[in-house]
Specification:
- It is a single chain.
- By secondary structure, the protein is α+β, with helices and mostly antiparallel strands.
- The chain has four domains: 205 residues, 2-Layer Sandwich (Heat Shock Protein 90); 131 residues, Ribosomal Protein S5, domain 2; 90 residues, 3-Layer(aba) Sandwich (Rossmann fold); 134 residues, Four Helix Bundle (Hemerythrin (Met), subunit A) (Up-down Bundle), CATH 1.20.120.790.
- The protein contains 20 helices and 22 strands.
- The strands form four sheets. It has a nine-stranded mixed sheet, with helices on one face. Strands 10-11-14-12-13 form a five-stranded mixed sheet, with helices on both faces. A five-stranded mixed sheet has the order 16-15-18-17-19, sandwiched between helices.
- β2 and β3 form a beta hairpin.
- α10 packs across α11 and α10 crosses α14.
- 36% of the residues are buried.
- This is Chaperone protein HtpG.
- It comes from Puia dinghuensis.
- Belongs to the heat shock protein 90 family.
- It holds the Pfam family HSP90.
- One of its GO terms (molecular function) is unfolded protein binding.
Length: 616
């Protein structure tokens, strides 16, 4: 029997391993099972080259839990080790056998060797008071050996009995880690880290992994149903995805994967961190913000790149040139796929726009390369429903009517077709085209596109009276005298603490409403943006809502109001007209809304009724 000290640079390495090597202690399962897969893949490579003789037989990796003995055993039927190899690989910390193997056999076989572990085996000591390794090499007439270590630099190595090639690693779980003696805990961890490893893995008699997940196959080998089934395997309780993109790159970096566009019912039903990162089918992380462009963090799916190490860090991702290339490639692939669907299957693209629009708009705001491509397939839906316009199609449809004196295209939009219906109808009566921009990203999108699209300006349909939506029109004649106009303006002048009201009297068409409430575009936009930013809204969030009341002096109702002898009734009528206008903008709330209801009933001659209504 051989005794000795593990050759390490410091005797304090084991406390360091136990506490600081990995942030999550369950990572030992990933490391040890990955090493077992590594050993099995090596055997398959050697067998294919004729260097390992005999049948491979069943290569399944077994994990066994013995709660009485307080052990977890991980068994593989891979290459195994001789006594010399145990001494070399286990007694020299941070020596990676996988890396040496790769150098020797590079280019001879496509089988991936996981490798890159270094200290991976020693993660066993994070949860173990003792680790036993019983191993037998694939080499003919090899002698099985047993290695034991109790977490100190001291070990024993002696001959052992083992019938078959391969390695058994027996972890004697320590008192602080008894949570790992629970079968469900082991099963959950195996599902997390090992569900797609390329060698079958069995726990308690059941195979827990899919060794050939969809992303490892060629797109030509997969049907639409295969992609749908794999999505369900990843996200069992999610609705079917809109569509997917299969990535398969081997130069200048290695990347495979499938990204799915999920269906988003509501703008606020957004879930990030749904993309899983693997390295040769070993789970690494679901925090992929540096690998995937920010606007595509809403996607679901899997990325696999052997160029990214298992023990990945933010600083590594931010500094590695391959990561930037992967990021750019994903952006390009997504843009190409969206353009392809838009071009070939536009009807389907339009039907899915409610969900797709969030991705596209977010990308156009944050990535100029994506913006360049996406402008061709970004679409806006006519408020009438069913008709969609690209920017150029909207420009062509509105060229004659919706270009202002600065030669800018004016895109008229609504954020609430029901609430803003009267304004929409007036705009449509003029021949204007109004589109819907009503998602949570649209306020920011509009601001961004005005700086990025040439000669384009957005105006909400209720930002001004219809005659002024494109350009300020010259005031038409009013049937009122200047004194009557002044008297009318004075009647409409109200002090409301939560609103900043400006009153103007204009001579509009007699058929136009008697009062129109509009919200100037700039200030309303700033308020909307501030509301989205919550507590960070700052200055604009605390400003009162700004509203302009345009009094149509040509409406016949004012002839009646101005002749009304009862000043109190005159004021009530005017207040009701302004309240109706404010109500159309959703700006009449609380006490003001209550007084409006009471006043309306009073004006109809039913003061008793008003009391009943208020009490009810």
């Amino acid at each position: 029997m051989q005794k000795g000290n593990i050759r390490v640079q410091t005797e304090n390495i084991f406390p360091i391993i136990k506490k600081f090597l990995y942030s999550e202690h369950d990572i030992f399962i990933r490391e040890l099972v990955s090493n077992a897969v590594d050993a099995t893949q090596k055997l398959k490579t050697l067998s294919s080259l004729g260097e390992a003789k005999g049948e491979l037989d069943d290569l399944t990796i077994d994990i066994q839990l013995d709660t009485e003995k307080k052990t977890i055993t991980i068994s593989d039927k891979g290459v195994g080790m001789t006594g010399e190899e145990v001494d070399k690989y286990l007694n020299q910390v941070a020596f990676s056998g996988a890396e040496e193997f790769l150098k020797k056999y590079k280019g001879q076989n496509e089988t991936n060797i996981i490798g890159h572990f270094g200290l991976g085996f020693y993660s066993a000591f994070m949860v173990s008071e003792r680790v036993d390794v019983i191993t037998k090499s694939y080499r003919e007439n090899a002698q099985a050996v047993k290695w034991e270590c109790d977490g100190s630099p001291e070990y024993t190595l002696e001959d052992a009995e083992k019938a078959d090639r391969g390695t058994d690693i027996v972890l004697h779980i320590n008192e602080e880690s008894t949570e790992f003696l629970d079968a469900e805990r082991i099963r959950t961890t195996l599902k997390k880290f090992c569900r797609f490893l390329p060698i079958p893995i069995r726990f308690e008699g059941n195979q827990i992994n899919n060794p050939q997940p969809a992303w490892t196959k060629k797109p030509s080998e997969l049907t639409s149903q295969d992609y749908q089934d794999f999505y369900k395997e990843l996200y069992p309780y999610s609705e079917a995805p809109l569509f997917w993109i299969h990535l398969n790159v081997d130069y200048p970096f290695n990347l495979t994967g499938i990204l799915y566009f999920p269906k988003i019912k509501q703008s606020y039903e957004i879930q990030k961190d749904k993309i899983q990162l693997y390295s040769n089918q070993v789970f690494v992380t679901d925090e992929v913000s540096d690998i995937v462009p920010e606007f595509l963090m809403l996607l679901h799916g899997v990325l696999d790149s052997p160029d990214i190490p298992l023990n990945v860090s933010r600083s590594y991702l931010q500094g590695d040139p391959n990561v930037k290339k992967i990021n750019n490639h994903i952006t390009k692939k997504v843009a190409d796929k969206l353009e392809e669907i838009f071009t070939k299957e536009r009807k389907e693209f339009e039907e899915k726009w409610e969900s797709l629009g969030l991705f596209v708009k977010y990308g156009m705001m944050t990535d100029d390369k994506f913006l360049e491509k996406a402008t061709k397939f970004h679409i806006m839906e006519d408020v009438k429903g069913g008709k969609f316009y690209t920017l150029e199609e909207y420009r062509a449809a509105t060229e004659a009517l919706q270009k202002n004196k600065n030669e800018q295209l004016v895109i008229l939009y609504t954020t609430n077709p029901v609430q803003q219906d009267s304004y929409i109808q007036q705009a449509q009566a003029k021949g204007f085209v109004v589109v819907k921009l009503e998602t949570i990203v649209d306020a920011a999108f509009i601001n961004q596109m005005e700086t990025k699209w040439e000669k384009v300006h957005f105006t909400r349909v209720d930002a001004d009276i219809v005659d002024n939506l494109i350009d300020k029109a010259d005031a038409s004649g009013s049937v009122l005298t200047s004194d009557e106009e002044s008297a009318l303006a004075a009647l409409f002048d109200r002090q409301l603490p939560e609103l900043h009201v400006t009153v103007e009297v204009k001579g509009l068409s007699p058929e136009a409403p008697p009062v129109i409430a509009t919200r100037p575009e700039f200030m309303r936009r700033m308020k909307d943006m501030a509301a989205m930013n919550g507590a960070m809204g700052g200055f604009y969030a605390n400003m009162p809502d700004e509203v302009t009341l345009t009094v149509n002096g040509n409406h016949p109702i004012y002839q009646t109001i101005l002749k009304e002898g009862d000043r109190s009734k005159q004021e009530k009528l005017v207040h009701n007209l302004s309240d109706l206008a404010l109500l159309s903008q959703g700006l009449l709330k609380g006490n003001n809304l209550t007084y409006f209801i009471q006043r309306s009933v009073d004006l109809m001659g039913g003061e008793a009724k008003s009391k009943i209504i208020l009490e009810a």
